[in-house]
Amino acid sequence: VQLQASGGGLVQAGGSLRLSCAASGSISSIMSMGWYRQAPGKQRELVASIIIVSGGSTNYADSVKGRFTISRDNAKNTLYLQMNSLKPEDTAVYYCGANQGTRIYWGQGTLVTVSS
After folding, report:
1. Rg (CA), the chain
2. For residues 100 and 11, what is the distance between their CA atoms, to the nearest angstrom?
């Protein structure tokens, strides 16, 4: 599985960004996908996830609930993260991850910087 993330950038507080993650390879074996982020000096944390195999249920970190929306376009094999009302504390490198059950595949990360 190969993942290519894009869409990061510099935005003012209160602004919006949409991240994209294009998946290729053995994607039929993916059970769920998610967006993670890692701020300087902190551990990587799960931001949002979505079940792929059935139902499409989603899960969000408390810090982003009501502001971020995860979605997927099966026809394009692409995962999205719509980020609204961005805050300076959202500044981090954002990674998409694909859970295949026995391992997680990672994209290369895209930097999101929110200025105050």
Report:
1. 13
2. 33
| 67, 18 contact by CB (below 8 A) | no
Express each pLDDT in 45-100 by its tens digit: 999 999 987 778 999 999 999 999 999 998 999 999 999 999 999 999 999 999 99
Q: Cα dist. 55→12, 31, 45, 103 in Å?
A: 35, 11, 24, 21
- For residue 61, give Cα distances in angstroms to 35, 48, 50, 57: 10, 6, 12, 14
Number of alpha carbons in the 13 Å side-chain half-sphere of residue 91: 12
AA letter at 47: V
**Of the candidates 94, 90, 87, the residue with the CA atom closest to the CA atom of residue 109:** 94
Total Cβ atoms within 10 A of residue 53: 12
